[in-house]
């Protein structure tokens, strides 16, 4: 994301959409929502080519794509607030097994985490908390839906068409750049991608090729995942060496990851557990 996102998949999408709601007022795009889906895709394809995406990439990405009713049904069921208290939510997320695994991975990736923290100023404990909460460090559910189909479905729907048209163009740019092949461009119910669940626009804006292979791979490359996550926070004003609990400027920066106070407090609590 996320932006990251809320994790706990339904809470994740709810918070993600709340986070991005202000951008839904962006200037109207050329493609008209509603109506014939293939006509809409054709208009989006023309817009993508005007933005520098090749015809070959557009044709490959849109081949055989249809609207996904399951995505629309899921989207319409969302509720945009947490129903649990912080204590109730954290008790289900900050559990001993997760903390133990995170500590083990901190040791395994100590040199990488130190390098990322030196460069971006974000504490390694917070990065580990985000990585764990979002996907259990890449071992959990990162989503199984084709991102192009998912986002095209949401863009065609008129509720937030401007927002998701922008995300669809960003997804095509990921393919254009060669960061991920189409077969790996899979994600969750709002198109979130990878081990810390970036929307395509965040992938493009904040993604860092930290393993030096020429691609930003947020599905498979742990260096890219951790550096990109830290970069998102740094770019949005993270203060190196400052606290990040509730009421601090850094806690507000964490809004760029997730607007929910409960989720941000859970991130902070998890990071604290890793220092004990």
TrEMBL record:
It holds the Pfam family SLT_2. The keyword Signal applies. Keywords: Signal. Residues 37-245 form the Transglycosylase SLT domain. Residues 1-30 form the signal peptide. Gene3D superfamilies: Bacterial muramidase. It comes from the Bacteria. One of its GO terms (molecular function) is peptidoglycan lytic transglycosylase activity. One of its GO terms (biological process) is peptidoglycan catabolic process. InterPro entries: Lysozyme-like_dom_sf (IPR023346), MltB-like (IPR043426), MltB_2 (IPR011970), SLT_2 (IPR031304). The keyword Signal applies. This is Lytic transglycosylase. It comes from Rhodoplanes roseus. The lineage of its organism: Bacteria, Pseudomonadati, Pseudomonadota, Alphaproteobacteria, Hyphomicrobiales.
């Amino acid at each position: 994301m996320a932006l990251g996102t809320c994790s706990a998949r339904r809470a994740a999408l709810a918070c993600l959409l709340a986070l991005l709601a202000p951008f839904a007022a962006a200037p109207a795009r050329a493609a008209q929502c509603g109506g014939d889906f293939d006509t809409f895709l054709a208009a989006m394809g023309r817009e993508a080519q005007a933005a520098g995406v090749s015809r070959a990439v557009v044709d490959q990405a849109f081949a055989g794509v249809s609207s996904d009713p399951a995505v629309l049904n899921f989207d319409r069921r969302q509720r945009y607030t947490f129903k649990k208290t912080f204590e109730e939510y954290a008790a289900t997320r900050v559990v001993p097994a997760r903390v133990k695994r995170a500590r083990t991975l901190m040791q395994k990736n100590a040199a990488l985490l130190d390098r990322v923290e030196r460069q971006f100023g974000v504490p390694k404990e917070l990065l580990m908390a985000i990585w764990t909460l979002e996907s259990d460090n890449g071992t959990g559910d990162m989503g199984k839906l084709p991102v192009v189909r998912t986002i095209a479905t949401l863009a065609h729907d008129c509720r937030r068409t401007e927002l998701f048209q922008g995300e669809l163009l960003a997804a095509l740019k990921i393919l254009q750049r060669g960061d991920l092949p189409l077969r790996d461009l899979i994600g969750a119910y709002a198109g979130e991608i990878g081990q810390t669940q970036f929307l395509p626009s965040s992938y493009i804006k904040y993604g860092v090729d930290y393993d030096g292979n020429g691609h930003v791979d947020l599905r498979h490359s742990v260096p890219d995942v951790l550096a990109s996550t830290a970069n998102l926070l740094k770019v949005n004003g993270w203060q190196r060496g400052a606290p990040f609990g509730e009421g601090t400027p850094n806690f507000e920066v964490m809004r760029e990851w997730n607007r929910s106070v409960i989720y941000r407090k859970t991130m902070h609590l998890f990071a604290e557990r890793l220092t004990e």
